[in-house]
Amino acid sequence: MAKYKRTSNQTKILEGMDKVYEKLIEFKRKMNSELVILKEDKIVKVKP
Asked: What is the superkingdom listed in this entry's lineage (predicted)?
């Protein structure tokens, strides 16, 4: 099986998405707000 190699741009995009996720969790904690996610085909609200 061939291993897929990411391009430089793909790597940067994924790193950026990780940072956005971390900032979202930080913001939700600061605002004491629920995080809405999709889990097992159901919409779920969780407290971060």
From this structure: Bacteria
